[in-house]
Amino acid sequence: MKLRSSRIALYLGVAATCAVLLFPIYWLLVTAISPPADLRSLPPRFWPDVPQWQVFSRIAEERPMLLWLTNSTLAALGSVALSMTVSVFAGYALSRFRVRGGQSLGLFILTAKMLPATLLVIPLFGIFRSVGLIGSLWSVVLAHATLIVPFTTWMLKGYFDTIPRELEQAAMVDGCSPLGALFRVILPVATPGLAATALYGFVLSWSDYAYARTFLTNAQQSWTANLGITTMKGEYVTDWNEISAAAVFVALPILVIYLFLERYLVGGLTAGAEK
Amino acid sequence: MAGIRIENVRKSYGAVTVLRDFNLDIADGEFVVFVGPSGCGKSTMLKILAGLEEASGGRVLIGERDVTDLAPGDRDIAMVFQNYALYPHLTVARNMGFGLKMRGMDRGEIDRRVSEAAKILAVDHLLDRRPKELSGGQRQRVALGRAIVREPQAFLMDEPLSNLDAKLRVHMRAEISALHKRLGVTTIYVTHDQIEAMTMADRIVIMRDGEIQQIADPDTMFARPENLFVAGFIGSPGMNFLLGNVTADERGARVSLFGQDVCLPVPLAAVPGIAGRPVILGLRPEHIGPAHGPVSFAVRPRLVESLGSEKYIYVDLPHENRGAPADAKGADDERRGDALIARLVDAGAVATGEPITLSFDPARLHVFDAETHRAIR
Ligand SMILES: Nc1ncnc2c1ncn2[C@@H]1O[C@H](COP(=O)(O)OP(=O)(O)OP(=O)(O)O)[C@@H](O)[C@H]1O
Ligand SMILES: [Mg+2]
């Protein structure tokens, strides 16, 4: 009996958390498909009488949604690929090797992620202009990598720390080189950690606005989705239906990726390595 | 298969010295056990042998080959880890075949060796499972299997049984011994369990604080410990230690134990100047008998523990015999400096507080220098 009531309390807690987290997304959808008149009504209407689903096809036709999403995707994939390549090695080294100053080096990387993005925008702009990257997607790929690498390095270090050293020792006794042990044993075992970390990096890049706005404003063909959406806000009139619908388009890929990667994110693959 | 030679191996981490001047010759096919308390450097020595740690000095030879600077994979040894270290993403068959695959062996030969080893270890029905789907004992077998398919020069095992429950441990202990008899591969086995060491080893190496205390076969280790530490480490319950002051006369060296004048089993000539010095006398619990003997004394037990087949009798030591140093403690019992334990088999009725006569033969006494703790013979 006691067990049941504590279970019920648990479920209520989960439900409340979900409601708080999901309400903005739900409201985004409602805003997209409500007739404009409904948007200001008081009390608010939680579901329109006549949902305006056509708003989605309208913006897909009138706005370069596909281009923007493609650019966002390319920027995110590029920066994640770059960041993961760097931070797999960096995180592994921080986790495994005791080198002089290694710890302070790790902390230094950590402080890099505490700097607000806006602080780095100006020096990066200077660098990119001098090498002619302004307006190119490569600028955001590189800039996002500077954001992502500190996070992913520390996440991966933490994940590698949970993998017993004896695994690569066994691999080395079995004939692997240290790099071989990393690629044949540690990385396969770390797949859930790698997936979660990569996804985190993807979201960081996907949600950026400041860098895209600074480096890409004058190059419409390189606009990312977040940058594109803000241009939909008119000076006098703003079509909230369209902006919300575009935002739904931007949110969708992340949801899809989450669903796709879920089984990796749950992890539990290391179970059985020990004892 | 090959012998192993360890020459002057040292290891320090910064200012901390973990191994000092380790020398050992292991014959081809021998089963050597490193035993000692936690932190004495057993695993470190094993890792140096495997090439997983670099020695600060010294050489390691496997066969006639100097492997000191070779990578672990080039040393032709196999290792079994305490936590098994099975590859969690691979099936049992692939776990066992991994080392062979890394050496470029062809598929058919790998399969043949894996299934043969799996049969020996009775895990042939588990080949398609992953490590997390196995019990502790099964994981242990797979870890052993991964070592034996390699047919290496030597096996290195680091406390392979310590994660198993007591019963399984005894079973696997026998199985590893049988495996060693069957394969005849040189094996170095690390444990801190002296019973494992005694039952499995051809030779035992007792270590403490990075130093070898004694190298001997189990019987010698038990009968002729070279110092106080070894004496206290081997045996369960551990050896009793009594303090005594030596007096010497024309009949030999004597000391007073339980108020009686006891003649020590060492010739006076062995230690000139021993007279007047304190010594520590070691007496094994099983060398104390009920009823009268060469040296008898009447006591009232402080505690009697019955294990059914045998009884442990705890007796207060006389004050003059108390005070043997704390580091002479046994490996697995909380020894108090003020009690003596007798281990009696078929002793009849003995009760706490009831008078009983115990006895021992002075020839059974081990004599140690109270300062150096070395055996006096
Ligand atoms: N990387 C390291 N840095 C500093 N000291 C270390 C390191 N690795 C081991 N040590 C020290 O070396 C000593 C020996 O360690 P080792 O693991 O060989 O002990 P052990 O005999 O195997 O003990 P146990 O029975 O607990 O496994 C310990 O005191 C340990 O603290
Ligand atoms: Mg150890």
UniProtKB/TrEMBL annotation, chain A:
Topological category with respect to the lipid bilayer: Multi-pass membrane protein
GO biological process, one term: transmembrane transport
Sequence ranges assigned to domain ABC transmembrane type-1 in this UniProt record: 69-261
Gene Ontology CC: plasma membrane
Keywords assigned: Cell membrane, Membrane, Sugar transport, Transmembrane, Transmembrane helix, Transport
Annotated compartments: Cell membrane
Gene3D superfamilies: MetI-like
Regions that span the bilayer: 9-29, 74-94, 106-128, 140-160, 181-203, 243-261
Principal location: membrane
Family, similarity comment: Belongs to the binding-protein-dependent transport system permease family.
Protein's recorded name: Multiple sugar transport system permease protein
Organism from which the protein derives: Chelatococcus caeni
Organism taxonomic ancestry: Bacteria, Pseudomonadati, Pseudomonadota, Alphaproteobacteria, Hyphomicrobiales
From TrEMBL, chain B:
Cross-referenced PROSITE patterns: ABC_TRANSPORTER_1, ABC_TRANSPORTER_2
Keyword Thylakoid: no
Protein name as catalogued: Multiple sugar transport system ATP-binding protein
InterPro entries: AAA+_ATPase, ABC_transporter-like_ATP-bd, ABC_transporter-like_CS, ABC_transpr_MalK-like, ABC_transpr_MalK/UgpC-like, Mo/tungstate-bd_C_term_dom, NA-bd_OB-fold, OB_MalK-like
Organism for this UniProt entry: Chelatococcus caeni
ABC transporter domain location: 4-234
Keyword Transport among record annotations: yes
Location of this chain's protein in the cell: Cell inner membrane
Bilayer topology annotation: Peripheral membrane protein
Annotated family: Belongs to the ABC transporter superfamily.
Domain of life: Bacteria
Single GO BP term: carbohydrate transport
Keywords: ATP-binding, Nucleotide-binding, Sugar transport, Transport
Single GO MF descriptor: ATP binding
One GO location term (cellular component): ATP-binding cassette (ABC) transporter complex, substrate-binding subunit-containing
